[in-house]
């Protein structure tokens, strides 16, 4: 039996692996950080024999409640990621698998590779209205890539969409892939209409370093980018510094920051009700957006989510709050589950790349529905 994590976004520590009925593993911390939750490894072993795998020390992971009712993502071909039931006792997650092939991958959620990221942005630039631009570089020297879609003209609305500030939340890039595919589809009237009245700035991966390292939540030096928006710096958080600088040049009329939530088994949004500039107008916009999205897809709901910030108590280091305050606009953090959307559960796949992709497409229709109001 062999266990590997010597590949992009690989993350696991082997504590014990002498016997297939007692494989004990731990999850490494994000570099220079307390956070750990993302795992990704490959098991090469006997076909047809049951293996028992334990992930230890999860009581101190970033989101211990994320392991309740969580099912492990697994794949033989790195395309189809099915789910394996697991049991959590408050500190150890135990799951059993009888491999059908001698190599099997496991991950916290279906990975979104840096290669696929490059394919996504380079395929997008083939569209005549799409431009790919490198804003600068990360601490590891990776590209901060921005797609501009549509031609800026007076009267057009400015829409910004970013994903994967938290790099282990890979569902965010699957979502953006769906949103971009629809926006760039000439046969889709939602995309065509939006390109007639707005310009999109899209950063599919805000944290390529963390994504490549196999981090859950931070960049190469352990910085949580979604707490850097008030005062980013090139030394600590060039990812945010560069994108924020561009936003200040373009302005923003509508902002979506795409995430995954470890604990809550629903899709939901978090608004800017705690920002000093929050108003009845902004609340009306938020309500219109949520109503549109709920009418479009049963994958969205507004019953379960985060507690709302009290007036004036928003954390302005968070992207969606900083943008709302700076530009006085509709600004949402969009959260998808690592587990499943419990109003429409899927036993085989849980919340999945396919559903994230479709939710991105559907969310674009909700953006279109409120475009006349923003
Ligand atoms: Zn997040």
UniProtKB/TrEMBL annotation:
<feature type="active site" description="Proton donor/acceptor">
    <location>
        <position position="335"/>
    </location>
</feature>
<keyword id="KW-0378">Hydrolase</keyword>
<dbReference type="GO" id="GO:0004181">
    <property type="term" value="F:metallocarboxypeptidase activity"/>
</dbReference>
<dbReference type="Pfam" id="PF18027">
    <property type="entry name" value="Pepdidase_M14_N"/>
</dbReference>
<dbReference type="InterPro" id="IPR000834">
    <property type="entry name" value="Peptidase_M14"/>
</dbReference>
<dbReference type="InterPro" id="IPR040626">
    <property type="entry name" value="Pepdidase_M14_N"/>
</dbReference>
<keyword id="KW-0121">Carboxypeptidase</keyword>
<keyword id="KW-0645">Protease</keyword>
<feature type="domain" description="Peptidase M14">
    <location>
        <begin position="110"/>
        <end position="374"/>
    </location>
</feature>
<dbReference type="InterPro" id="IPR050821">
    <property type="entry name" value="Cytosolic_carboxypeptidase"/>
</dbReference>
<comment type="similarity">
    <text>Belongs to the peptidase M14 family.</text>
</comment>
<dbReference type="GO" id="GO:0008270">
    <property type="term" value="F:zinc ion binding"/>
</dbReference>
<dbReference type="Pfam" id="PF00246">
    <property type="entry name" value="Peptidase_M14"/>
</dbReference>
<dbReference type="GO" id="GO:0006508">
    <property type="term" value="P:proteolysis"/>
</dbReference>
<protein>
    <submittedName>
        <fullName>Carboxypeptidase family protein</fullName>
    </submittedName>
</protein>
């Amino acid at each position: 039996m062999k266990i590997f994590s010597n590949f992009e976004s690989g993350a696991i520590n082997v504590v014990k692996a002498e016997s297939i009925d007692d494989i004990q593993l731990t999850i490494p911390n994000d570099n220079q950080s307390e956070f750990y939750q993302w795992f990704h490894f490959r098991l090469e072993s006997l076909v047809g024999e049951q293996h028992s795998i334990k992930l230890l020390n999860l009581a101190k992971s970033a989101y211990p409640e994320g392991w309740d009712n969580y099912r492990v993502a697994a794949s033989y071909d790195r395309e189809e990621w099915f789910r394996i039931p697991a049991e959590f006792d408050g500190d150890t997650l135990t799951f059993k698998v009888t491999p059908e092939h001698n190599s099997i991958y496991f991950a916290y959620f279906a990975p979104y590779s840096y290669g696929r990221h490059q394919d996504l942005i380079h395929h997008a630039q083939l569209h005549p209205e799409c431009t790919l631009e490198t804003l600068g570089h990360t601490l590891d020297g990776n590209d901060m890539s921005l797609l501009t879609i549509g031609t800026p003209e007076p009267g057009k609305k400015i829409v910004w969409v970013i994903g994967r500030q938290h790099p282990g939340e890979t569902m965010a890039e699957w979502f953006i892939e769906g949103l971009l595919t629809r926006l760039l589809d000439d046969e889709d009237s939602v995309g065509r209409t939006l390109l007639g009245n707005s310009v999109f700035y899209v950063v599919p991966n805000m944290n390529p370093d963390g994504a490549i390292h196999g981090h859950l939540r931070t960049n190469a030096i352990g910085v949580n980018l979604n707490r850097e928006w008030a005062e980013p710096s090139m030394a600590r958080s060039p990812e945010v510094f560069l994108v924020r600088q561009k936003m200040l040049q373009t302005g923003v009329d509508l902002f979506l920051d795409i995430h995954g939530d470890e604990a809550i088994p629903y899709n939901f949004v978090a608004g800017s009700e705690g920002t000093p500039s929050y108003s009845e107008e902004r609340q009306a916009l938020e309500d219109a957006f949520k109503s549109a999205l709920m009418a479009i897809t049963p994958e969205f709901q507004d019953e379960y989510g985060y507690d709302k910030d009290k007036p004036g108590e928003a954390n302005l280091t968070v992207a969606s709050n900083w943008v709302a305050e700076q530009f006085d606009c509709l600004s949402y953090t969009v959260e998808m589950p690592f587990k499943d959307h419990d109003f429409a559960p899927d036993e085989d796949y849980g919340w999945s790349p396919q559903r994230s992709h479709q939710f991105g497409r559907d969310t674009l229709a909700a953006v279109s529905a409120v475009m006349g109001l923003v």
